[in-house]
Model the fold of this input.
Amino acid sequence: MTRKNALPEKTCPVCGRPFSWRRKWKRCWHEVRYCSERCRRQRRKTVTKSSGGG
Done:
């Protein structure tokens, strides 16, 4: 069994919190950017707001 402190970590660009590897991300860890679905949605809103306006 792998110890939790030996798992790879990334930092979420939205909230700035570190998050660890999870089993469900086994095959796509290189694609994971956000710690949660909430942060993923929040990032989209931020990008949409800053690029919008006419």
